[in-house]
Specification:
The protein is mostly helical. It has two domains: 69 residues; 39 residues, no CATH class. The longest helix is centred in the N-terminal third of the chain and has 58 residues. It is elongated and about 115 Å long. The protein starts with a helix and ends with a helix. The C terminus is likely disordered.
Length: 136
């Protein structure tokens, strides 16, 4: 009797293990097919990207852009004689912004220990007494 139960359990274990092996084989086959499909999609996307890069290079070619600008916008190429150098530019006019009023104000704060009305002192140093007086 004990041997019959043991044989029955062995057969059940054998059938269960066969089922598990079949299931693992099926899942692995499915995953291999999915990986092959993904590799195929990646390859086609790379080919598409290469084609798009080639097309962008052709469309953005300087000579093509120049031809389109001349034909459709009426633009002309820039003549080299029209370009100048830095010596041809006028000098910046001198004015109150040429100094560094903030740096000077910070220097006075460090020397004197700081005024009581820092904002007013700063405005007076930049604009004179009239700007600080208008805030009070």
């Amino acid at each position: 009797m004990f041997l019959r139960i043991l044989h029955g359990l062995s057969i059940l274990v054998l059938v269960a293990s066969a089922f598990v092996v079949y299931k693992v084989k099926y899942e692995s086959t499915y995953e291999v097919q999915r990986i092959a499909k993904l590799r195929s999609e990646i390859s086609s996307e790379r080919e598409r990207l290469a084609l798009l890069r080639t097309e962008w290079t052709r469309l953005a070619a300087p000579q093509r852009v120049q031809d389109l600008a001349t034909r459709h916008l009426g633009m002309k190429p820039l003549e080299v004689a029209r370009m100048g150098d830095l010596a041809g530019l006028p000098e910046k006019p001198l004015g109150p912004e040429d100094g560094d009023p903030i740096g000077e104000f910070i220097g006075t704060l460090q020397e004197s220990g700081g005024p009581r009305d820092a904002l007013g002192e700063f405005l007076r140093s930049i604009n004179g007494d009239r700007a600080a007086g208008s805030l009070q």
